[in-house]
From TrEMBL:
An individual GO BP term: phosphorelay signal transduction system
Record key words, sorted: Phosphoprotein
Protein name: Response regulator
Source species of the chain: Streptomyces mimosae
Domain of life: Bacteria
Response regulatory domain ranges (all copies): 6-123
InterPro entries: Bact_response_regulator, CheY-like_superfamily, Sig_transdc_resp-reg_receiver
PROSITE patterns, sorted: RESPONSE_REGULATORY
Any one Pfam family match given in the protein's UniProt record, by short name: Response_reg
Length: 225
């Protein structure tokens, strides 16, 4: 049974959290609430999230400050952040969001379908990332067991091509998404493309390291946010 992805919803207003849950419930993933930046950072200490929806205007630690803390932590710095704001302060305010590490910046009221579609993309990529990681670790264990019995290359010959094909499919999807974002001209394009490239290039390097005769493979886990 495939484990559901976790989506972190951060907003100080309960009614806004309820609205987000109503919009995203159709994705059938695990929605986790946080009513402050501090609460969000606490949740990120122990849980892995596919994407974070972060309100900008919050008392105390606002969205920008919360994002800065998230990006400073090695464990969480690659988690996509979508900023949500009720006030449009113009280009400077939007730029500050991207500078803080957001992959997208959406003003309220937003189109529920658009928000759900954006979140869905990052959930899909996260699930592929998790699956590839698990398969890579399984392959590594099988290779180690196979080498102990002189069957390492035979085992790799059957599993590596399939794993490589799965990764190629994820790379193709990410390339199409990056192209779409670039054509839309949105400020999130560069940040989103760079995020996807880091994720997939890390997986590709780890997979290449599993090839027979390659040096000791590095853990994919160390490259995840």
């Amino acid at each position: 049974m495939v484990q559901k992805a976790k989506i972190l919803l951060v907003d100080d207003r309960p009614e806004n959290l309820l609205a987000l849950e109503a919009i995203l419930s159709a994705l059938d993933q695990t929605l986790v609430r946080a009513s402050s930046g501090e609460e969000a950072l606490k949740a990120l200490l122990t849980e892995d999230f596919a994407v974070i929806l972060l309100d900008v205007q919050m008392p105390g630690m606002d969205g920008f400050e919360t994002a800065a803390h998230i990006k400073r932590r090695e464990r969480t710095r690659d988690i996509p952040i979508i900023f949500l704001t009720a006030i449009n302060h113009g280009p400077h305010h939007t730029f500050r969001g991207y500078a803080a590490g957001a992959v997208d910046y959406i003003s309220k009221p937003f189109d529920p379908w658009v928000l759900r579609a954006k979140v869905s993309v990052f959930v899909d990529l996260h699930m592929k990332n998790v699956q590839l990681h698990e398969q890579a670790m399984l392959l590594r264990r099988e290779l180690e067991a196979g080498h102990a019995h002189g069957e390492g290359e035979q085992s790799a010959g059957g599993l590596l091509p399939e794993l490589s094909a799965r990764l190629a499919a994820a790379e193709e999807q990410a390339e199409a998404l990056s192209k779409e974002l670039a054509e839309s001209g949105g400020g999130a394009a560069v940040s989103t493309a760079a995020h996807l490239e880091r994720k997939l290039s890390g997986l590709r390097r780890a997979l290449d390291a599993l090839q027979p005769g390659a040096s000791e493979p590095k853990s994919v886990e160390s490259r995840q946010g």
